[in-house]
Design goal:
The complex is a heterodimer of chains A (about 600) and B (about 675). Helices cover about 30% and strands about 20% of the residues of chain A. Chain A is built from 13 helices and 22 strands. Chain A has a seven-stranded antiparallel sheet, sandwiched between helices. A five-stranded antiparallel sheet of chain A has the order 14-15-20-17-18, with helices on one face. In chain A, a hairpin with a 2-residue loop joins strand 9 (about 265-275) and strand 10 (about 280). The longest helix of chain A is centred in the middle third of the chain and has 29 residues, at about 190-215. The radius of gyration of chain A is 25 Å and the shape is globular. In chain B, about 30% of the residues lie in helices and about 30% in strands. Chain B is built from 16 helices and 35 strands. In chain B, strand 2 (about 15-20) and strand 3 form a beta hairpin. In chain B, helix 1 (about 35-50) crosses helix 7 (about 195-225) and helix 10 (about 370-375) crosses helix 12. The radius of gyration of chain B is 26 Å and the shape is globular. Chain B starts with a strand and ends in a 5-residue tail after the last strand. The relative contact order of chain B is 0.10. At the A-B interface, helix 1, helix 6, helix 7, helix 8 and helix 10 of A face helix 3, helix 7 and helix 12 of B.
């Protein structure tokens, strides 16, 4: 089976270019307003700090009209599936003004159950004209572990409560029975209910502003402008694709394991086919879905393709329905990106980073100047839980920062979260130590961790924790066996990992681990990966290598080994460097 | 009444406004900004002397400067080192790891102002409770001092973990380095007593980086002023909306980072008081940008974290900074057609040189000013008091070129440029009001800057603001407003405790301690104060949230119940977000105290009633609807007597600005000569 993301629409309305800009600006401002409200009133740190959310305005069929700008990229333009599920269940007439629906059903949403969509209808004079929807990561939705995310589940039922287009408000009235079901099936009911309220409030503001906009300019004008925007975005996307040489471009990589079986890697092979002004992402050779929770559903497979294509081809064009009309996605059911039959999906977001990286790898054959080498590509999520010195429960969630890949004109940047994170900030050490019984011993660059190259990647980081009261530790690290690759002769970077050090014992290295007991005095050393290099390292200007050595980004040994640059007494030994570089031929 | 001078140094002009306390009159002066800005100030002061103003008899000179922000943006500062806790020297470069440009695969932040080779670690550690886990290594410190000398370091920033809680190690290192090196030394706790190590480190680094240069500038400025006979006290406009002494500015130059626009906000707050508007949007539009500051209950809004060079790629400053919304929309903003074939305005600007097409100085791309001229909103002979003669045909043909590409009539495109510029400005203003939980409808707008009065009524309509006030001399308003700025100290201490765990007697003592710090600085200034105002605030949130809201607390606190404070928080929370959460505990994250010393200030003079109740006027065609011209009455502001009323469409012209009254709006002149525009309801 193959599927088409969106059918091309034969609609080329004559639009008013000035009114169009007015409507576009006002829609963006409305989404921003909703977003500010959500991120400032949410309870879960992962919403307000990690910004693991999105807010969108959809039309009456679930097509994206506008989306907030701070949303995490992975959530781009995939709220429609949730809304369409509600439409299929209730029919357009069955969704009333004042209704609020909850949705995280894995078969439709394709992601872990923490990501709960709240949506409500927008009616104009009694007619359904659209939906306001917001997806946000709740701290807990039940399931077998605290926080609902673990590395070793084997079916979705272990991961929490599934809500399939459930009306929690009916015509403006909360359904107390349903709310009670939710409240008593999640571990942090205040937080989850608080997040839900914040999502509802944000959607309601969007609804009111959209109606006000329509009342000011008229439905026909606003609706006409929206369709004209889609047409513009489509035309622009087609124009960009036409400039890419026709052909089939392949990217291949693999994941370490599925969190349950550790001796089996998961192959990823993705084809990007460019033909004229359309582009196909063909996932049909992906590995089958896994017993462990590395799966994502169909909807997530679509958004991974959208993130990669938008970032590479049209980073500055807004993501609308039209932008993706020229994109076809072939994704048969049963792969790791289109899992079915209640597959576990807890770590879907770990997988998706490598999927995006691999699509970019495929595109590097087509548009080399617009693609960086691979980034650290690991979610690197890490969680601590336990009791503080007063016996109160605590739990934390954060993810690592690492290096990004080198580009055609310069070194890769570091540190950043991953390609599917956006404006997501890491929690400061002083805040961690104030609110939780954690102690951070070091936080610093790892020398020589960047992929070498004419342009090198960004560096990985080392962060060392201890738990003075002891506790438990969960982590999800990836890409240790398929390190962040270089491009066009550039080298791969060092990979991320967790090293647990206990006095008088051999250190233990982990990638994925759930609820590991940590005793006081034990050190947990998190390493993030670097970014890949670009161009052969022996072509790097020795003076730049010297500068990196001076700053401690590259060691003297690393300069010699990776770059064939000899450094003596703070200077480049020109003769020795020439000899080293001649001796070792440039490898491809 | 004391005599006061305000000097605002902008990119093109240096503005001076002086109040003569004996003669009770205002004197204005203007010169071109010089390469070394203090020289222009001296020229300006000499000009004031020639206008019969006695600089020698002046008590206070207030100065807003862009030296600090320019030094950062141009990366021209001291050779700086950073000293941190062992294991944490990379914090400055690591930052928070966010990527505000979500689809940019090549995103890069600005390089740190201190390279890694000049970031040094010392063995020491203090925990979140302020307990010393590891004492400071004195031997290492001694070696560090030698190293700094060897490396010829000029300025050093010190930031240790949890120094906001216990600064003992920072103090020891700062004292040692001050004694044993010739560096400009800054310790993070002197600038911020809040947690978040990256933000505090960055603040200390910026302060050190600009330190030596700013001291030189302030000293030279003071000497320059003294050379013209000035013997009074020099005060600098602080980013928090108040003024600082020269001595403090030299120690904490980073507090001057948004020194420039502060005068306008202070002036707008004063106008709010006079005209009985507690809530004001101060709207300043010039050649390249538009800026807005909210004034809530008479107090300018401040943000606790500011980003120099912008949020996306810039450097954090964890200090109270006036919450300024700035958008790249000014008279010089360029209108162009983007990749979608759509009309777009800014953020590129034609600046002052070559300037808009109508300046005839080489500009070829149409700007907002060109659109205003084509629509008849500006008069070609009366721009900036006739200093620049505008060329209408040139502006028209530049906009015609756009109109041809868009296949739209010229008038529509010109009106569209104004419309889009308005939207950009209004959206930015809307964001700040909404972020603070306010409805813009509850605000009046005070419009100033050369282009402010020209655009204010359009922006106000978009925001549903019902009232616009145009002060006198809107073109010199930033310098004028400085006359009204108070001395202000923002003191803060992170507490990070559950409200119910707070011992309110102890909290009372903590607040009193913070208040004493502020009063202590104030007492040393040596300026006679009319009154001292003190406000206590707490940054509070529901447990589990990150964002806090600032809640004003009653004084004294001792003897009050936790429930009372909880209720105050919930009231503030509901106002901002429209809902509250029952059964969730509340955290108190920071205690904040603002100590404000209000000096004697020039009284705002009423204007004398003119004999002529029917002032001169003329008419000219102006396009308001993007289609056809309406005959519009044009008045000369200097002719309009108090109590005079007029209805839109109308234009009021004066020396450095033009006020547009739209069809459906009405305007009146009050006793102070301010124009009050009532925004019509037909928008």
């Amino acid at each position: 089976m193959s599927a088409v993301m969106a059918a091309p629409v034969e609609r080329k309305a004559k639009f008013d270019p000035i009114m169009l800009e007015v409507v576009r600006n006002l829609l963006i401002a409305t989404m921003d307003e909703c977003e500010i409200n959500l991120s400032r009133t949410a309870f879960s740190p992962i919403i307000y700090e990690v910004k693991d959310y999105c807010i969108g305005l959809l039309d009456h069929e679930g097509n994206t009209v506008a989306q907030s700008r701070g949303s995490v990229p992975t959530f781009m333009a995939d709220l429609g599936d949730s809304v369409r599920d509600g439409l299929a269940i209730y029919g357009a007439d069955g969704i009333q003004p004042g209704d609020v629906l909850l949705m995280n059903y894995s078969e439709v949403c394709g992601q872990h159950l923490n990501n709960v969509v709240v949506y409500l209808p927008v009616h104009l004079e009694g007619r359904l004209i659209g939906f306001m929807a917001s997806r946000a990561h709740w701290s807990d939705v039940g399931g077998r572990v605290s926080g609902s995310v673990s590395t070793d589940t084997t079916e979705i039922f272990q991961e929490g409560l599934q809500l399939r287009s459930i009306k929690v408000y009916k015509r403006g009235k909360p359904d107390e029975e349903i709310l009670r079901i939710i409240r008593h099936n999640v571990r942090l009911p205040e937080a989850s209910m608080g997040d839900m309220e914040a999502q509802i409030a944000a959607c309601e503001i969007g609804r009111q502003r959209y109606i006000a906009l329509i009342q000011k300019y008229g439905w026909d004008t606003v609706n006409g402008c929206v369709h004209a925007m889609w047409d513009q975005c489509e035309a622009l996307m087609r124009e960009q694709i036409r400039q890419i040489p026709d052909g089939t471009y392949v990217g291949e990589s693999f994941l370490d394991d599925d969190g349950v079986t550790f001796d089996k890697t998961i192959p990823i092979r993705i084809k990007v086919i460019v033909h004229g002004d359309s582009l196909t992402v063909d996932y049909s050779e992906l590995a089958p879905q896994t017993p462990g929770p590395m799966n994502a559903g169909y909807s997530a497979g679509l958004s991974a393709a959208k993130v990669a294509i938008k970032s590479a081809i049209v980073p500055n064009v807004p993501a609308t329905e039209g932008t993706f009309r020229p994109i076809k996605v072939v994704l048969p059911p049963g792969t790791i990106m289109s899992a079915v039959d209640n597959a576990a999906m807890s770590l879907w977001t770990v997988t998706i980073k490598t999927i995006v990286d691999t699509i970019l790898l495929a595109l590097s054959g087509a548009i080399p100047d617009r693609i960086p080498a691979a980034h650290h590509g690991s979610m690197g999520a890490f969680m601590f839980a336990g009791r503080d010195e007063r016996g109160k429960r605590f739990s934390t969630v954060d993810s690592v920062l690492g290096g990004w890949g080198a580009g055609p004109n310069g070194d890769g940047f570091s540190p950043l979260k991953t390609v599917t994170h956006g404006d997501t900030r890491q929690v400061p050490t002083e805040v961690e130590e104030t609110f939780w019984p954690l102690l951070v011993k070091r936080y610093e660059w790892i020398p020589d961790s960047a992929g070498p190259g004419r342009f090198r990647g960004g560096l990985g980081l080392r962060k060392v924790y201890s738990l003075p009261q002891g506790g438990r530790f969960t982590a999800a690290f990836e890409r240790s066996k398929c390190p962040p690759w270089g491009l066009f002769g550039g080298g791969a970077a060092k990979t991320g990992k967790v090293i647990v050090r206990e006095a008088s014992k051999e250190p233990v290295v982990y990638q994925k681990v759930t609820s590991l007991e940590i005793k006081p005095g034990v050190e947990i050393e998190l390493h993030s990966g670097g970014g890949g290099g670009r161009g052969h390292a022996f072509e790097r200007d020795p003076q730049r290598v010297l500068e990196d050595v001076r700053q401690g980004y590259v060691s003297i040994e690393g300069a010699r080994k990776d770059y064939a640059v000899a450094i003596k007494a703070g200077k480049v030994d020109e003769e020795e460097t020439r000899r080293l570089r001649e001796k070792t031929p440039l490898a491809g | 009444m004391p005599s006061v001078i305000g000097i605002d140094i902008g990119g093109t002009f240096t503005d001076l406004v002086a109040y003569d306390g004996k003669a009770r009159k205002l004197v204005f002066g203007k010169t071109s900004t010089t390469v070394s800005p203090d020289e222009g100030a001296v020229i300006g002061l000499r000009k004031l002397e020639r206008s019969d103003f006695r600089v020698a008899g002046t008590d206070v000179l207030k100065h807003g400067t862009t030296v600090v922000i320019n030094s950062i943006l141009e990366r021209r500062g001291a050779k700086t080192a950073l000293v941190t806790t062992e294991g944490f020297r990379d914090i400055l470069e690591i930052g928070r790891g966010n990527r505000p440009e979500s689809f940019n695969l090549f995103f890069k932040r600005l390089a740190p102002l201190v390279p890694r080779e000049h970031r040094f670690e010392l063995r020491e550690r203090i925990n979140a409770k302020g307990e010393v886990l590891m004492p400071l290594d004195q031997e290492q410190l001694a070696a560090l001092a030698v190293r700094l000398k060897d490396e010829k370091i000029e300025a050093v920033a010190i930031c240790f973990l949890h120094a906001y809680r216990n600064p003992v190690h920072e103090k020891a290192v700062a004292a040692y380095l001050a004694e044993n090196t010739r560096c400009f030394v800054t310790a993070s706790h002197e600038l911020s007593r809040e947690f978040r190590e990256y933000e505090r480190t960055s603040t200390a680094v910026l302060n050190a980086f600009v330190g030596p240069r700013t001291s030189t500038y302030v000293k030279r400025f003071e000497q320059g002023a003294q050379s013209t006979g000035f013997k009074g006290q020099l005060l600098l406009m602080g980013s928090n909306g108040g003024v600082l002494t020269a001595e403090e500015a030299v120690r904490k130059p980073v507090l001057l980072i948004e020194s420039g626009p502060v005068g306008g906000a202070a002036g707008a707050a004063e106008i709010g008081k006079i005209t009985n508007h507690a809530n004001i949007i101060a709207f300043d539009m010039g050649g390249t940008t538009a800026k807005a500051v909210m004034i809530e209950n008479g107090e300018a809004a401040v943000t606790p974290v500011y980003y120099a060079a912008g949020y996306n790629r810039g450097y954090a400053v964890q200090a109270a900074v006036l919450d300024i919304v700035e958008v790249g929309t000014g008279g010089g903003s360029i209108a162009w057609i983007n990749e979608f074939g759509a009309l777009t305005v800014g953020p590129r600007s034609a600046g002052a040189v070559p300037g808009p097409v109508c300046y005839g100085a080489g500009g070829t791309e149409p700007t907002v000013t060109d659109a205003n001229l084509v629509l008849g909103r500006l008069h070609p002979d009366r721009f900036l008091g006739g200093e620049i003669k505008l060329h209408r045909p040139a502006a028209q043909s530049a906009i015609e070129a756009l109109a041809r590409k868009l296949e739209e009539p010229l008038e529509r495109v010109a009106a569209g440029i104004i419309n889009l510029a308005t939207l950009t400005m209004a959206s930015a203003v809307k964001m700040t009001t909404i972020e603070r939980g306010y409805d813009p409808r509850d605000f009046a707008m005070v419009a100033y800057g050369g282009a402010g009065p020209l655009h204010a009524s359009l922006v106000a309509r978009e925001l549903n603001v019902r009232k616009v006030i145009v002060p006198r001399h809107p073109g010199h308003f930033c310098a004028y407003g400085m006359l009204y700025a108070s001395l202000r100290y923002d003191v803060v201490q992170t507490t990070a405790k559950a409200l119910n765990d707070l011992d309110l007697d102890q909290t009372q003592r903590d607040f009193a301690g913070l208040e004493d710090q502020g009063r202590h600085v104030l007492n040393r200034v040596g300026i006679e104060l009319r009154e001292t105002r003190v406000s206590w605030y707490a940054d509070m949130r529901y447990q589990g949230q990150e964002h806090t809201i600032k809640i004003r607390l009653p004084s004294p606190l001792a003897g009050r119940a936790h429930e009372e404070l909880h209720k105050l928080f919930e009231e503030g929370y509901r106002r901002r977000y429209g809902h509250t959460s029952a059964n969730v505990a509340v955290d108190v994250v920071n205690l904040r105290v603002v100590v404000e010393g209000v000096p004697e200030r020039p009284p705002v003079e009423q204007i004398r009633t003119k004999a002529n109740p029917a002032p001169r006027h003329e008419t000219r065609p102006v396009i308001f609807d993007g289609k056809s011209a309406t005959s519009c009455t044009v008045w000369d502001r200097d002719d309009l007597p108090p109590g005079f009323r007029l209805t839109g469409p109308a234009i009021i012209e004066e020396e450095a600005s033009t006020t547009v009254i739209l069809p459906g709006d009405a305007a009146s002149i009050d006793d102070y000569g301010y124009i009050h525009i009532e925004i019509g309801v037909d928008s």
